[in-house]
Fold these 2 entries.
Entry 1:
Amino acid sequence: MPASPTPWGDRLLPRHPVTRDIARQLYERVAGAPIISPHGHVPARLLADDEPFTDPASLFVSADHYVTRQLHASGVRLDALSVAHGADPREVWRTLAGHAHVLAGTASAFWLRDELASVFGIEDELTPGNADEVFDRISALLRQPDYRPRSLLRRFGIRVLATTDDPLDPLAAHRVLADSTTLTERVLPTLRADAYIDPAAANFPLNAEKLLSAVGAAATFGGYLGALKDRRAYFIERGAFSVDVGVTDPATAELTAAEAESLFQHALAGTLSPAQQRLFRAHMLLQLAAMSVEDGLVLTIHAGVYRNHSASTLDQFGPDTGHDIPVSTGFTRELKPLLDRFGLEPNLHLILFTVDETAYSRELAPLAGFYPTVYIGAPWWFLDAPDAILRWRSAITETAGFYRTSGFIDDTRALLSIPARHDVSRRTDAAFLARYVAAGRMPLAMAERIISDLVDAIPAAAFKL
Amino acid sequence: MPASPTPWGDRLLPRHPVTRDIARQLYERVAGAPIISPHGHVPARLLADDEPFTDPASLFVSADHYVTRQLHASGVRLDALSVAHGADPREVWRTLAGHAHVLAGTASAFWLRDELASVFGIEDELTPGNADEVFDRISALLRQPDYRPRSLLRRFGIRVLATTDDPLDPLAAHRVLADSTTLTERVLPTLRADAYIDPAAANFPLNAEKLLSAVGAAATFGGYLGALKDRRAYFIERGAFSVDVGVTDPATAELTAAEAESLFQHALAGTLSPAQQRLFRAHMLLQLAAMSVEDGLVLTIHAGVYRNHSASTLDQFGPDTGHDIPVSTGFTRELKPLLDRFGLEPNLHLILFTVDETAYSRELAPLAGFYPTVYIGAPWWFLDAPDAILRWRSAITETAGFYRTSGFIDDTRALLSIPARHDVSRRTDAAFLARYVAAGRMPLAMAERIISDLVDAIPAAAFKL
Amino acid sequence: MPASPTPWGDRLLPRHPVTRDIARQLYERVAGAPIISPHGHVPARLLADDEPFTDPASLFVSADHYVTRQLHASGVRLDALSVAHGADPREVWRTLAGHAHVLAGTASAFWLRDELASVFGIEDELTPGNADEVFDRISALLRQPDYRPRSLLRRFGIRVLATTDDPLDPLAAHRVLADSTTLTERVLPTLRADAYIDPAAANFPLNAEKLLSAVGAAATFGGYLGALKDRRAYFIERGAFSVDVGVTDPATAELTAAEAESLFQHALAGTLSPAQQRLFRAHMLLQLAAMSVEDGLVLTIHAGVYRNHSASTLDQFGPDTGHDIPVSTGFTRELKPLLDRFGLEPNLHLILFTVDETAYSRELAPLAGFYPTVYIGAPWWFLDAPDAILRWRSAITETAGFYRTSGFIDDTRALLSIPARHDVSRRTDAAFLARYVAAGRMPLAMAERIISDLVDAIPAAAFKL
């Protein structure tokens, strides 16, 4: 038996020769297609400054909480993985190489392998034996101009890259990028509304006051909505096409003006009960949809995550350090107030992301299979991985087809992982479609249309690009 | 690579040659077997009148909310798909042909392809280019006597067809069919109890009053139960073998006579709180089981659907227009009161349907793997599709085997889709069994017994046919 | 087509030749490896006494509620399956043989086939035709010394076998086994805490009083915790390495000393409300973790089962008679109080078992992918079967890899089924890994390391062996 039974070029494609041939043929149609990344977390500043990456450890470990959380689970302290906390980059890199078995089988391991090969030309598996040599090779390359962020953006073929930004962000980095005479790729802001709709979020009163004062609005609920609209307009002027919000559950509610005003004043005062906080947030989510009906911004909802689960880790290392843990999530009852108001509005696009797979066939596909406003978000966070993507397609396609989905979303802070992530999606979609073609469930010509639309027409339609 | 890698005759069968051979051999044992359809929604009137179908659009689009919901989700207005609302049939048909990519991969697309080929001899994919020609060919055939409902019933080999009927329906159409000297197929009524057990249903007081007056019963809870028993007896005389009920959740409860009486009077007056409505419904569900213990009617429960989710669509187009959306559903706690009373009663058959896949391995298979009264309903509604059926078999078989299931249920209003739906079930079951045989998990002879029992002995046992 | 398309030796391995070759090669590395069974229910007394098994029916049917529940679901009365209730062993055996179709496809059928072949050399399928002959052959073998429990333990290669024991058990049988000069296998106790942490459990006040008096502790909450610690120390002296607890839901909570004392006194008096019972249990679960941080015992949690669902069956036949039915289970919110206190403690190992598959990718893998204390328990109870094991691996691996799992757990009372169960796990893991290797997702050398670690280093690490 060969040591490597599958050529790297055929990775993730199905084994049966007929199915593999179909999958390969489909994949090749989109393998080199430009990347549309309509939602993610690469900082605009990274591209505006265009400074070289400092070292392999910062790039592949410290800045990637997908990786650090797994090493942490294996007993490595988080500060020992953080160059910012004083860890030595070479030691961090050796730690990574010594934990290949821990990462084996995870999405992170697969992306890492792809990034080393595709971006740095390193075909060997990373091992303790070659860790230092690989570290040095990457370090040398990172000093080359070709490995600066903007060069990589171009090399990766990323045509549209959306960032995620605070509503009060002046978007100065985006301005630098828009004014660039050499950058043809579009780097566009996304307004992230979380901190301004959830009274249970840290510092809500402070955030709300800042928002009100930023636009000189009166401290009334009407003034608050006006301030949000004002910031949305500011973002739209700078190219934004969507508003994103993360909520523990996607409850929506419609309050009377008096109720909303009263809750808002208590929210400013920090005197809401948990149930009232939830109700206010639910009303705000409905208000965001109302604003989208007006100004056309796509509304993306990331629901069902208990953020910063480990209190002591949050205290010591801050948010986004690998312990956002999903919870059971429903949409059918939760979104009914919103959908009764706006579910048939042509101007609203609502893209729903979940980390609870049970909602795929039970709620998301049926909702998106009726409401023209509802799109099924691509597999998110822990579910952005080959098996999970195939489960997602299997769960939604028979009810909602392919055209009610968002297209692939990388949702990443890690610029270097963007091509690897999109490639996984393209390969698994090719494998999925090939299975349908091979089972006589779809003509090949239709699969060819769909595989192309999935990387272009489908995200363009969902995100109004 | 061939454009059509799988002969249409091998559709849905597995790819590996050994497994495919086994699957094909199993499938051929049942491919032409008669169809038992013990639960569905074809109107008895359609067969009693035996009028020709009017046109292809009414047949394949307007009357099929599986199709209209998907076109609606793509932005087509529902009235533009409804011949009854004045839409031109040929235009509706062209709309269908123009949305093949939207339907691609869904169960509806697969059934449509099968129906066109098997019923009308149209082998080509429907496209905008051939839409008019196909429309004309089907229209011409529909005028032939062979394409009238009763002829199709015979041609399809449907031996038993259950309809779904209001308890107060006089069953006149069933009488016409029973009295027919030429119709040998049995078309039998099913009593649908929803509107008479749930005080939250539209017009419950009115419905209850009608039921009471229909049998001249006193307006007491005892009188009400008696009236229901009376109608069950009426249905049994006309060949009914089951009672069906749809509930948002399958809660059951046992009340004292005084509690039940009090809730009933408030239900008649329309003065129950939501919690009391749920409690009364839970008690009624237990009462339905009690009646089944007495009269032997199989009790089928379709649980966990939020009916008519879009309020404005309900207002404009009525119920059953494609926006019944599932919610998370439990059975273990919910059914305990009922099962503690009747779970071991030999005369009770309780068939449980869900649209929440999570209940398969967690609750349904364990319950049916212990209680002789409990049967696992076939995949229902959105889950009646090839991948979903395989997920269902995988989730339940290792715990409950094959003999605790209902047999396939088409649950459809669309007479023409019945053979296609049963064929999908037979093919996927053959594929599933072939996988077990090929993995050494089951002798071939056992798989041969099971594939035959699945279309005959198993539904006959579950539904007491 | 051959009647038996797969040699028995290749059972459960994948079909495609390349993938099968890899899987076979991986499987062969561990096919004969010693068995570590760190959690199960074989009675220590069985091995201490080492008496011959009495008859095939008691061995394979009466004592195995996996089998009896399925026969019961098919309409066989439980007492007709129970030799202890006077059923004739030969008749029970004939009943089993007559229900092969009922069991077909279930895990029990597969284990039975393997046990008959591997332990008794019976290669034929059990049928009504050969039932008597097989009964006689097994009966004859059971009288041989080689078929006594200790001989089988050795023949099976079981190096470590953990039992499950009441905290007040004097562990006399374990002492006999430890003192044996011929038994080299380790049979070690596990403290099962359920009855002493849940005031809703039958006889809690009585159990608590017994525990207090067993160690002469004062009837205070502090005294109670001290008594538990005392018994843990007793178990540790006798080789215990873990404490097990089964809970309907894994809620945890931290109370003040005064609150805990008050709830404890009411628990002793039997005067807690259901909500207070749950709160006390939640606090006790957190206290068990606190004790594990001190004394190092691994804490295993089996969550989400409604025990003894059928009240009348419980009355007549007692617990563990096949009607423990799962319910929806969450961990993220439930364990937060515990994990905020102890989630980063190096001395705590917390192994989480569930029968709700939805928690795999949603909660267990994300928790185990961050907290070094959290391990994902192997598929439990209904989910200990080939398809279910593959679903489990698929759901967890992309997020948490292989090294955050417990290793395989047979969790069985049936000594004879232990090798069959571990073999299924080894085969399905080989199949899973082979799929990843064949898809280019993992080097073969890594898969070779992992398949070996899964039967040795991984359970040894999780259970601190």
Note: The domain at 52-147 of chain A is CATH 1.10.2020.10 (uronate isomerase, domain 2, chain A).
Entry 2:
Amino acid sequence: MGESLTPRKRNISFTSLGKEETIPLHNFWASTGYSAGTKKLQLTRRQSGARLNENAAEGLEELDELANYEDFHTIDWLREMSRNRLRHRQITQGLRKTFLQKIRILHDACSGWLVVLLIGMAAGTCAGIIDIATKWLITLKMGVCTNKFWLDQESCCWLHEDQNSKIDNDSCAEWRSWAEILGGHRGHGASDYAVNYTAYVIIAMMFSTLAAVLVKNFAPYACGSGIPEVKTILSGFIIRGYLGKWTLLIKSVTSPLAVGSNLSLGKEGPLVHIASCCGNVFAHLFPKYGQNEAKKREVLSAAAAAGVSVAFGVPIGGVLFSLEEVSYYFPMKTLWRSFFCALTAAFVLRSVNPYGTAHFAMFYVTYNRPWLLFELVPFALLGVMGGLYGAGFVRANLFWCRFRKNSKLGKFPILEVMVITLITVLLSYPNPFTRMDASTVINELVQECGPTSHTNLCDYNVTRHYHGLNTTFVPASPSGGLGDGLKTALWQLALAFLFKCIITVFTFGMKIPTGLFIPSLAVGALMGRIVGIGVEQLVYTFPDNPMWKTDCQFSNGQSCITPGLYAMVGAAAALGGVTRMTVSLVVVMYELTGGLQYIVPLMLATMFSKWVGDALSGEGIYDGHIRLNGYPYLEQKREFTHTTLAADVMRPRPGEPPLKVIVQEGMTIYDLEELVKSNTLNGFPVLISNDSQRLMGFVCRKDLIVALENAHNRPEVTEDSPTYFTLHCPASVSELGNSNPVRLFNIVDLSPIAVSDHAPMETVVEIFAKLGNRQVLVTHNGKLLGIITKKDVLRHIAELEGEDPEKIMFD
Amino acid sequence: MGESLTPRKRNISFTSLGKEETIPLHNFWASTGYSAGTKKLQLTRRQSGARLNENAAEGLEELDELANYEDFHTIDWLREMSRNRLRHRQITQGLRKTFLQKIRILHDACSGWLVVLLIGMAAGTCAGIIDIATKWLITLKMGVCTNKFWLDQESCCWLHEDQNSKIDNDSCAEWRSWAEILGGHRGHGASDYAVNYTAYVIIAMMFSTLAAVLVKNFAPYACGSGIPEVKTILSGFIIRGYLGKWTLLIKSVTSPLAVGSNLSLGKEGPLVHIASCCGNVFAHLFPKYGQNEAKKREVLSAAAAAGVSVAFGVPIGGVLFSLEEVSYYFPMKTLWRSFFCALTAAFVLRSVNPYGTAHFAMFYVTYNRPWLLFELVPFALLGVMGGLYGAGFVRANLFWCRFRKNSKLGKFPILEVMVITLITVLLSYPNPFTRMDASTVINELVQECGPTSHTNLCDYNVTRHYHGLNTTFVPASPSGGLGDGLKTALWQLALAFLFKCIITVFTFGMKIPTGLFIPSLAVGALMGRIVGIGVEQLVYTFPDNPMWKTDCQFSNGQSCITPGLYAMVGAAAALGGVTRMTVSLVVVMYELTGGLQYIVPLMLATMFSKWVGDALSGEGIYDGHIRLNGYPYLEQKREFTHTTLAADVMRPRPGEPPLKVIVQEGMTIYDLEELVKSNTLNGFPVLISNDSQRLMGFVCRKDLIVALENAHNRPEVTEDSPTYFTLHCPASVSELGNSNPVRLFNIVDLSPIAVSDHAPMETVVEIFAKLGNRQVLVTHNGKLLGIITKKDVLRHIAELEGEDPEKIMFD
């Protein structure tokens, strides 16, 4: 953390003095007749201008913007926003402008839209490529397209349409399973099954091992879903390289491999991370965004929205996800741009890789029947089950991840991935609901049983009603007792549900890209379908029950229950239980189903799921992982409800050494250098004198270091030169020998945020959360008592909640 | 503004001392081993407890919550939130709870959901009744349903289905025009036309006059759309009675009357106001919301969302409207509850008065054709036109409203309504596109021309292609040259567009409920349909142009352009230009059209509309009216870009008398009473001494008045009694004669928000906007220099923008 005092050329005082007159406010000042103001006020204004110019110089001198903040530091939103305003003023100042200046203003105004357009296009393209690669890898485990090996099963059979074989087996002549290729013949014998099984296991193991090796050696940040980290970064934390090009590349490559290996994970969470990487990469093309950490985060919010948008094909849901779950600072301008970005991404994705239908959405379904009032009971039940599952999953997964972190297991990430993959594929091949990839399973589970459905899920003991060739008026779902196929399917569903429940706990958090959306949705859909079939059979067995008799009487022999809708509701409930999303989840599901009338079941289930989940485990999986990793995330959603005061939290605590401070005049260069070297604090309060302890301002560590470097470069300055943080500085001080005084007034922030020691912590927390500053000074009647940093607040909150405050990452 | 010092019984010191021990923090304090802290810290804590308890006592003693703030004052969000936290702590404190206490906790936890449920149901019911009433009043101008006069035309004819006459004339035997009733026969002669025309004019005049009289005499706040005021209230301003029961009733009654009189206005904006009234009324049932102005505003945000939700049948759009346009403080919890509220309202509305289709939405349309790439050019053009219209409308309407305000016109509101109604109905009857109510017109304009469309709008010179009886495969829109009917329709469209453009300027702002959504949408739809038909004819005339040749080749003789879509896009553009809504507008339109593929045209048009509108007139109509009326609304969306400092804005300005302050010890009761009487300030800074000018705290005016009243009630206190705002107060001071000292430490806020005089105003504005406090104290090294209130900030902004700062309403 300590910074070396290597000399760097930068003359602050010249920059700031030279640009001082540029601030147009003087005009206003004169016009309001306030020019007779005291000298103090005049000076004040000048000083502020100097300070801002000094900041702006940092931005415009094309300093490496990465050097602005250290890794794992928190950004100062107030300072960044003020830098941006100054940058904007500098571009637009003056009345007469050259053509070039006008172009620059236009470029500046457009760059916000341009950058989100580029991000949207990049995110859409990435998602399209990942989609195609994933599909291919998934089917590669089953077999290969002879003569066109780069095609997945669907494309292979679509190109060589073979109507008869397709209906029979979803397969075609060109597509051959591994048994056929290796054995040279076509069959369904036990040995073929064994060959296919073996090929499946081996290929899956290869995929996951490759993914783990790539992640470990090239981009360790590419692991996990990335959403907790993106959330932390958006809240103002710096994790260098987390959104870099290398992470983008490796995550894009390994995510399809991980999904292809049939592990219980998805590529949707990682897509949010990938889109955020795109956002970061493109933000660097525009200095307005690349060199300002606060503005960059606006762009990253939009990128996260685009990520969800392309993951599911739901632009509005994506924006709301970004708003509700991920983002921290989300002004209206960002909302609109996020929407634009999400839409662009969805459109590009559609042109790169359409899902084969005219709709964007991943699991587009339309149900023909409305839901009935009594169904609200099973829907609420599904919500409760989803909440139970979510709470259980969060607790179990956090326990397992903590165990991994603290035990030797954490040292063998590749081995862990291999073992989990082996267990997963060995157990998942026999059951069709786990052998297929999770998206396909979900898609099958949420569909209605139509007259042309031939799967086990729709095997009811009933004569189907065909009305001639015109199939549009055939009742949507045949109903009746359970057929043998459906009985088998129910067993398989139950086993798949149990298996997915357990294996996902061990999968999420491994050192490969692991998304959580799809596994959660899959667990929920399995659960929902089982409940749905149960309700359907209940209604079929007791058709005269008054609860549903009147509602179902019009369905003449048909079921009035849609098990597919239950799967959809269950999926929402499970995902809600795990992530505690609310509005965005309902909107995503609404966009997927495309019918407003199904919002009520979805909302009911989501509400119950959130209530039950919150009651049993206080936090969602993302917040849990943020806490587990000790990221300094100041939760905005939860209110601070304790009654502590600023004085209780501030440093120094009683017994600790006094605060490191600067006195406004008299300290020598040597003193200051020793001060900087002796600690790693981010800044130092400036006092008027040690006696009065009156607060005068605040100096940032970085500014001080640069100022000291500059002073060193001047020949007349020695180590004994006294420094003056005041406006007036004696030209030469004879009694101090031959050392010339150094004026450092320019680097003082004269208006640090300060609170009284009596201020309740709830106010202080609000100041941190809403203004986004890094530290607050604590004073008592103008005397400095201490300082509270964001980290102190987080430690304090951890302490109050009975956790170890020392695990919060350094700030 | 001045408050009388009437005595009121309330013993603050007892309340606060009695409840001091209840704060559970002491336990934590002891557990962290910090109990050895200095005495100062101990005192601090106690002091804070006392202060909060004092606040809580206000809330829990069932004071009239209206007395908390004066009319036209701004609320202190920080204080309200802290009051709410204390209330919550007081309910949940203690380990062992009685059954009653548990019930109370549960009730408290549920009340948030309960209140939004009730509001949703109330808003839905109101909207349903208003819908039905409006429909009836609209058709009443045309005729009456014989034998069932309370039915509107549609219901009348639906009940007495008469297939032949219906296709012919959209009419039936039971429904009779006024000419038929008065003349006793059925006909289409010139005299009948005159009779119908006259009846139409007379009835419309009656409706609008009745509405104006009701509004003027019973609820003056029921006029206008109400959205600017709701926005101001949500930002923390108090306008007493604006959301009261009386306003709710009168606005609900007069809104259908105003729409029924065929004025160019809608009932959608007023529905937002009506829903907010419902919100306010129901909030009073729950002390948690009714007695806390900040919490009440959370509920009002949800109510506003419900208002838009029921106005158009778009729950998600409603929530986003509330988020984007209306609300100020919108935490995630509110988002989720708003969604619930909006959905409840939409469902209740649907059961009260379904639109006749299975869909919620007001203008539900589905188009059969995708849009083509080259169409983005006319869509962008529509956006530009919408922006031009919007900017022109805002400027013209604000000019007219300012004129009304400053001239004698403002004194004759009823006469104004009558004159405008007369002009409107006289001019609108001859043209079918203005004779019908605007919703019907919009609905007709956005529809595709199908094979069964018989209106003038679909009169093309082309032989229609019928494919036998199976009509599902008939191409959706016949295309060809303009038929005579269409030529007439084009003229009528153009005239209607011009007429609506002009008359809406004079209508919006009259003293009856005037919504702006529907007129704007109507103007846009008229404009869009004209452009759409133009583009269609262009493509029809030059079918071989390379721009559209390839895209249109599959349409074999059919048009590949959908003029209805242009109407939809134009409607969005015009509404966007007027209100500058962005995301919520697109989402509303998306919910209305129900197809993601049409988002791109809508978004493009909205973007261009906003850009053009913002370039030509900097503000939307709502912000314009807020500014016109001088409401103290601190815009959060716009950044403060000036470079002034806190010292430039604070009071006292140079030359002004010094600040009214309190010195912490030595002032007599008489001094304080004189201080309170001499001004209407909201509070007074407390200084340690007049010499040092060091800031010690802040006392609210209201608290001081109550404390003085209490002191008066004690026999030993005289006017000469000295007061002590310090912790320690001498028991009796002999040198002061026989007057006992009064301790007023409990009412001091020891941690007022203070900034340095060097603080840039951008930071101060951010503090006001984000923390929501009422005033900021300005200090220089701990010495009090001045005070900045929200009003000072608003005045300062007005000054910087070259406006009259004195028009901001008192605060």
Note: The radius of gyration of chain A is 32 Å.
